[in-house]
């Protein structure tokens, strides 16, 4: 089930990537839901989204914890 949550999180982040504030909220939720190794995978995924939309860079602060 944990893997399903990771895939769901990626889908949600893709859909809200147009709005940096909403994206940051979803990143915060993901940090509470996901397992530590999934957070590392999420970091890589988010960095690829940032290449497409640099406004999302401000959300990296939530991945530092």
Question: Gist?
Answer:
This protein has one domain. Helices cover 69% and strands 0% of the residues. The model has no long low-confidence stretch (mean pLDDT 92).
Question: Could you explain how this protein is built, in words?
Answer:
By secondary structure, this protein is mainly α. The protein has one domain. The chain has 3 helices and no strands. The chain has helices at 2-15, 20-33, 36-52. It is globular, with a radius of gyration of 11 Å.
List its salient traits.
65 residues, 3 helices, single chain, mainly alpha
Distance between the termini: 24 Å
How many distinct beta strands?
Answer: 0
Give the low-confidence spans.
Answer: none
Strand content: under 5%
Number of helices: 3
Write the layout of secondary structure elements.
Blueprint: H1 2-15, H2 20-33, H3 36-52
Helix pairs in contact: 1-2, 1-3
